[in-house]
Amino acid sequence: MYPANFHFTKEHEWVNVEGGIGVVGISDHAQKELGDIVYVELPKIGAHLEQGKNLGSVESVKAVSDIYAPVSGEVVEVNPLLSTAPEKLNEDPHGDAWLVKIKLSSPDEIKSLLSAEDYQKYLGAE
């Protein structure tokens, strides 16, 4: 269910790093908890993010939830799909509905995140 190459936060964000770029999204668990997503607010390209700090928010019919950066770095791409189709986050949170791509400034931060296996154990303990 959770891609083995992804790293997760306890706040339910994920990052998949390839070549110094981290693709960031929210987990399937997060989208299920949120319910029907109606709006996504994301940072601008060029924004500098710090691990654990706010990078945007997701609004559902239930509530508005903050999204936190799983890694530090510069936003190099924002998913244009989500501005017109935020509901894609409910359909494909680990695929087409990624949020931002970040050029990592501290690649070692990945070590502080949960593996997919550890994340699933964490969800079981919640």
Reconstruct the topology from this structure:
Layout: E1 7-8, E2 13-18, E3 21-26, H1 28-34, E4 37-41, E5 48-49, E6 54-60, E7 64-68, E8 73-78, H2 81-84, H3 88-91, E9 100-104, E10 114-115, H4 116-125
Antiparallel strand pairs: 1-2, 1-10, 2-3, 3-9, 4-6, 5-8, 6-7, 8-9
Structural account:
The chain has helices at residues 28-34, 81-84, 88-91, 116-125; strands at residues 7-8, 13-18, 21-26, 37-41, 48-49, 54-60, 64-68, 73-78, 100-104, 114-115. It has 126 residues and is of the alpha+beta class. The radius of gyration is 13 Å and the shape is globular. The model has no long low-confidence stretch (mean pLDDT 97).
Task: Give a brief description.
With 126 residues, the chain is an alpha+beta fold. The protein has four helices and ten strands, in the order βββαβββββααββα. The longest helix is centred in the last third of the chain and has 10 residues, at 116-125.
Number of domains: 1
Name the helix and strand elements from N-terminus to C-terminus, one letter apiece. EEEHEEEEEHHEEH
Uncertain spans? none
| Estimated structural class | alpha+beta
Task: Supply Rg.
Answer: 13 Å
Mean pLDDT: 97
The span between the termini is 17 Å
Q: Spell out the CATH superfamily.
A: RNA polymerase II/Efflux pump adaptor protein, barrel-sandwich hybrid domain
